[in-house]
Automatic annotation (TrEMBL):
Record carries keyword Cytoplasm: yes
Subcellular location as annotated: Cytoplasm; Nucleus
Main location: cytoplasm
Function: May be involved in calcium-dependent ubiquitination and subsequent proteasomal degradation of target proteins. Probably serves as a molecular bridge in ubiquitin E3 complexes. Participates in the ubiquitin-mediated degradation of beta-catenin (CTNNB1).
GO cellular component, as recorded: cytoplasm; nucleus
A GO BP entry: heart development
Signal peptide: none
Cross-referenced PROSITE patterns: CS (PS51203), SGS (PS51048)
Record carries keyword Nucleus: yes
The name this protein goes by in its record: Calcyclin-binding protein
Native species: Crotophaga sulcirostris
Pfam families reported for this sequence: CS (PF04969), SGS (PF05002), Siah-Interact_N (PF09032)
CS domain span: 66-159
Length: 221
């Protein structure tokens, strides 16, 4: 669709140029008819949504595309600020750094930085943002994404997924029995740990069982 629209616009430009050179009335009438026809066709083309443009940009990228996972963030009363480190990004043309915002998400696309393209997607933001008030700034080796809060309130995290994960983790350890909370923590450390961590926990477990059997400690940890 975008390619077709570009072709129509080029045709219209050429017709206008020919009109400036044409002297015969019949030729001018034919060109004027074509000019009106092209203008009407361009006018009737459906507008492209920003999201669609962003998706088309991604699908037509040349070169190697890198998904950005590392970032830092901060907030003020009015903005959530996401900092993305990209060496040399300030040397790019401004149009090579694009951000598409929705009320609960944003997509970042950085084109042709040192021969690579970079993308980052944040979905399901914790709270709604103002699309019109949000923007991006290019600083030395950094892209700063400014998400305008719809309400001036503190965010405890960036996304709804992070919030749910924190609540589940807190619920697992927030028990009336301290030994149960400790057991839950040890289970989590064991499940997520490497071999060395598992050996350490197993050793501590065996030693605690031995001490308990000797009556050195009253409680099973």
């Amino acid at each position: 669709q975008l390619l077709f629209l570009n072709q129509l616009q080029k045709d219209l430009e050429e017709v206008k140029e020919l009109l400036t050179k044409a002297t015969r009335k019949r030729v001018r009438d034919v060109l004027m008819t074509e000019k009106h026809k092209l203008e009407l066709e361009i006018k009737n083309q459906p507008p492209q949504k920003p999201k669609e443009v962003a998706e088309e940009d991604k699908s037509s990228l040349g070169g190697y595309t890198v998904k950005i996972n590392n970032y830092g963030w901060d907030q003020s009363d009015k903005f959530i600020k996401i900092y993305i480190s990209l060496n040399g990004v300030q040397k790019l043309p401004a149009e090579n750094v694009q951000v598409n915002f929705t009320e609960r998400s944003f997509d970042l696309l950085v084109r042709n930085l040192n021969g690579k393209n970079y993308t980052m997607t944040f979905n399901n933001l914790l709270k709604p943002i103002s699309v019109e008030g949000s923007s991006r700034k290019i600083k030395t080796d950094t892209v700063l994404v400014m998400c305008k809060k719809k309400r001036e309130e503190k965010w405890e995290c960036l996304t709804q997924v992070e919030k749910e994960s924190k609540e589940k983790e807190k619920a697992a350890y927030d028990t009336s029995d301290p030994s149960e909370g400790l057991m839950n923590l040890l289970k989590k450390m064991y499940a997520e740990g490497d071999d060395e961590m598992k050996r350490t926990i197993n050793k501590a477990w065996v030693e605690s069982r031995e001490k308990q059997s000797k009556g050195d400690i009253p409680m099973d940890i």
